[in-house]
Amino acid sequence: MARSEPGTRRLEPQRHGIASFVMPEFYAPFPLERNPHLREASRRMWEWIGAMGLAPTEKAQARMRATGADLSGSYVWPRADLDLLATGLRWLALTFRIDDQIDEDDQDDRLAERAAVIADLRGILHGHPPVVGSVVTRALTQLWQETAKGRAEDWQRTFIGHFEAWLDSYSTEARLKTARRPPQLHEYLEWRRYSVGMPWLWDLGELTLPTLVPETIRECRPMRELRHAAALHIALVNDVYSVNRELLVGYPCNAVLIIQQQHSRSPQEAVDAVADQVADQVRVFQCARTALERELDKQDVSVGSRTAATAYAETCAANIRGQIAWHSQVRRYDIDDFRRASGSEPLASYPDDLLLRPSEGAVRETTL
Questions:
Q1: Is residue 345 part of a domain?
Q2: Taking all residues of the chain, what is their mean pLDDT, rounded to a whole number?
Q3: Fewer Cβ atoms within 10 A, N terminus or C terminus of the chain?
Q4: pLDDT digit string (tens) for 94-111?
Q5: Is residue 4 part of a domain?
Q6: In this predicted model, what pLDDT tens digit does every residue of 166-197 receive, in sequence order?
Q7: What is the DSSP letter of 360?
Q8: Which among 280, 340, 308 is positioned nearest to 217, based on CA atoms?
Q9: 340: confidence class by pLDDT, cuts 50, 70, 90
Q10: What's the CA gap between 323 and 33, in Å, rounded?
Q11: Number of domains, the chain
Q12: In-domain check, residue 26
């Protein structure tokens, strides 16, 4: 069974309400690190959420509390100073809300509106004003301007690329849902390493380092493999924890569901197969980490650049371990809020202020 961290809510062993299975023990042979500035950074995050109007209702606030964006960030950036951690927590709070509204709250499958939102959010990163104003687009505009100010162009380019890949995953999933074609596991994993969001979070983490990772190292093959393996490890763990909630909202892009449906596996067999994939990612990560050391020798980088690259890899390893701890402690993937909802009560957690209907605001013409 998966081990609980000190002071956490035990989720194992137990039977889950819809897909019945016992939680496996996820392989993650790395140290657990958590940022000591969590309490103050969390206070700042909630102050910003209130100032931006991101959680204006009791239900929205409850969803944000259940998500534990602040706790997640303490594991994502375990060595960040207070200011950077507080900035990171704002990014997480905002993007968790975007994820909820696009993947969970939109029960009407407003695909054109989704595409318009994604185009709007992408445009903000390139300095364009949003076509449709909302609390989300205003928050992203402010946050990106603050984060990008004074940053190196190659770092901004990398961050934007990873953030756009995260946004684009919603379009990919929408196309498949429209075509009523579930993805094959191998193609799902190709975009899942971006849809989990970790690559751009680690780009933010680079800002904790005295020296940024050189672009030749950041984009070399061992570093890409290391980053992809760590992201997939976290994504697959997430798929197991989130499967029952995603079953309830009819969200098909989940490795457990894909394996179960396409290979005629029981829920337990599918979960165990995903756990095996998780272990595979550890082995890929460790091989890539060794190859990265050879690449650093080959490129003959400076001491500072080597230290930055090594610290980046260490942070990814800590994230592999830390995100298991986060999943085991938060209530983000519980289904109690759905069970409590009456037949007339909408399931949506947030006000419908992101996926605006055409009559409610200009919708940018775009194609999924």
A1: no
A2: 88
A3: N
A4: 999 999 888 776 656 677
A5: no
A6: 999 988 888 887 777 788 999 999 999 999 99
A7: G
A8: 308
A9: low
A10: 10
A11: 1
A12: no
CB 118 within 8 Å of CB 171? yes
* Residue whose pair of structure tokens reads 């994939």 in the numeric block: 277
Is it the case that residue 360 has pLDDT exceeding 90?
A: no
Predicted local distance difference test score (pLDDT) of residue 281: 98
Question: What 3-state DSSP class applies to 55?
Answer: coil
Max CA pair span of the chain: 65
| C-beta neighbour count of 284 within 10 angstroms | 16
How many C-beta atoms lie closer than 10 Å to residue 291's C-beta?
A: 16
- CA 224, distance to chain mean position in Å, is 18
Q: Residue 279 in contact with residue 53, Cβ under 8 Å?
A: no
pTM metric for this prediction: 0.90
CA 340 → CA 103, 219, 336, 344, distances in Å?
20, 47, 6, 11
For residue 99, give the CATH number of its domain.
1.10.600.10
For residue 78, give the nearest of 10, 31, 16 by alpha carbon.
31
CB distance 231 to 196 below 8 Å? yes
Q: Alpha-carbon distance 218 to 154, whole Å? A: 10
C-beta separation of 318 from 32 below 8 A? yes
CB burial of residue 32 (10 Å; 0-12, 13-18, 19+): middle
Report whether pLDDT(12) > 60: no
Whether residue 13 has a cis bond before it, omega within 30° of 0: yes
Residue 343 lies in a domain: no
User: Does residue 14 carry a pLDDT above 70?
Assistant: no
**In which element (H, E) is residue 48 found?**
helix 38-52
- DSSP secondary structure, 261-329, as one string: HHTT--HHHHHHHHHHHHHHHHHHHHHHHHHHHHHHHHHT--HHHHHHHHHHHHHHHHHHHHHHHHHHH
Strands (E), the chain: none
- Per-residue burial over 307-342, b = 16 or more CB atoms within 10 Å of its CB, e = otherwise: ebbebbbbbbbbbbbbbbbbbbbbebbbbeeeeeee
For the segment 69-87, the average pLDDT, to the nearest whole number, is 98
